[in-house]
Write a structure and sequence with these properties.
The chain has helices at 35-38, 47-59, 70-83, 96-111, 128-132, 157-164, 188-201, 269-284, 287-302, 327-335, 360-380; strands at residues 14-18, 21-24, 29-32, 89-93, 115-119, 149-152, 169-174, 204-208, 232-235, 246-250, 308-314, 317-322, 339-340, 349-352. The protein is an alpha/beta fold.
């Protein structure tokens, strides 16, 4: 049997990693400024994380959700405290796509309606309703296109009002900062008016914090920059630091019932301990403040880089938009400079999503390397 060939792969095979460094099979070290799609939040192989997981697997790694699991209770309490959502409810699953799938399903149950409003360049996952709410026809199969989703432009609230007035919308789903789309974001007045309209017309407001949550933007959640309170918040990626885990945080007015949602692996013992250890490290090492401060330092240094049209994002969820497509630039950064970065649907955007432990020294190395590559490109033209 061979692998199903759906991933274009760089010729690099990591075999070890620590903090912001990845080591390949040849012993070459790389600076990780991408964290495997923003998954690595507290650094690769953080000692507290490893210790907690090893201790847990020695005891019990998994049992079903048909029995008591106090680790889930501990996680809900810790997450509520650090995020500021003590009164919310937590449903655990396995991934960001599954989190958004459950969020949309729950919104439909709650409202009795089926149409979804999403936004241009959105990415919410690759499963049924989540991919239908993703603005990329290439990854939507005919099966997914049966979903009733309306895509609207960001920051144009009148379009949203017109659609909500029709009375058939179950949910509005939005990323506070678009990840795969290229780091575009709504302005504060747009988000506050969006919350008001959802409340007025009975639509569930879902904030997709899968990539932007868990301190990445300099607040626990990126939507907290806008002073809004969503009905459902979807979470994943950085919450497990590499362990597959996701979830939704649900406002108290949305009531549960037995069988409404379900999962086999979601909320298992190892997933809970992985997430608890991430929260413990974020708190102990003040990583949210570090994300804010190093993000500001990055922006100050990135302003010196030639051919950058815009610097997008917040904290350590950042994008450099150039006046050219960055595919070849990313290759040179990996192969010549040994630095991992990310791309986006906007082909001119270089995405920066490092572990939240990163410091100024690593940012300086990146800026120097990027300037060197840009000089080489200019000289070769």
């Amino acid at each position: 049997m061979k692998l199903f060939d759906v991933y274009p792969l760089y010729d690099v095979e990591p075999v070890k990693a620590y903090d912001c460094t990845v080591v390949d099979k040849n012993g070459t070290t790389y600076l990780d400024l991408y964290g495997g799609h923003a998954v690595i939040s507290i650094g690769h192989t953080h000692p507290h994380y490893i210790k907690r997981l090893k201790e847990q697997v020695d005891n019990i790694g998994f049992y079903s959700n048909a029995v008591q699991n106090n680790l889930q209770v501990q996680l809900a309490e810790k997450l509520g405290k650090l995020s500021g959502y003590d009164d919310y409810q937590l449903f655990l699953c396995n991934s960001g796509a599954e989190a958004n799938e459950n969020a949309l399903k729950l919104a439909s149950f709650h409202t009795g309606k089926s149409r979804v409003i999403a936004f241009e360049n959105a990415f919410h996952g690759r499963t049924s309703a989540a991919v239908a709410a993703t603005d990329n026809p290439k990854i939507n199969a005919p099966l997914n296109n049966q979903q009733d989703v309306t895509f609207l432009p960001l920051n144009q609230i009148e379009f949203v009002k017109t659609e909500l007035e029709k009375g058939d919308v179950c949910a509005v789903i939005i990323e506070p900062i678009q990840g795969v789309g290229g780091l575009d974001e709504g302005i504060t007045t747009f988000f506050t008016e969006l919350e008001t309209l959802c409340n007025k017309f009975g639509a569930v407001l879902i904030l997709d914090e899968v990539q932007s949550g868990f301190g990445r933007t300099g607040k626990f959640f990126a939507h907290q920059y806008h002073g809004i309170t969503p009905d459902i918040i979807s979470i994943a990626k950085g919450m497990g630091n590499g362990f597959p885990v996701g979830g939704i945080m649900i406002a108290p007015h949305i009531k549960p019932s037995y069988g409404l949602l379900g999962t086999t692996f979601g909320g298992n013992h190892l997933a809970c301990v992985a997430t608890l250890s991430v929260l413990e490290v974020i708190e102990a090492e003040n990583l949210i403040d570090n994300a804010k401060n190093i993000g500001e330092y990055f922006v100050s240094q990135a302003m010196k880089i030639p051919r950058v049209d815009k610097i997008k994002g917040k904290g350590l969820m950042l994008g450099l938009e150039f006046d050219f497509e960055v595919g070849e630039l990313r290759k040179k950064m990996i192969y010549d400079q040994h630095i991992f970065t990310g791309g986006a649907m906007n082909k001119k955007v270089l995405r920066i999503l490092p572990p939240l432990t990163i410091g100024k020294k690593e940012i300086d190395r990146f800026v120097k390397a990027l300037q060197s590559v840009l000089v080489e490109q200019k000289e070769s033209v």
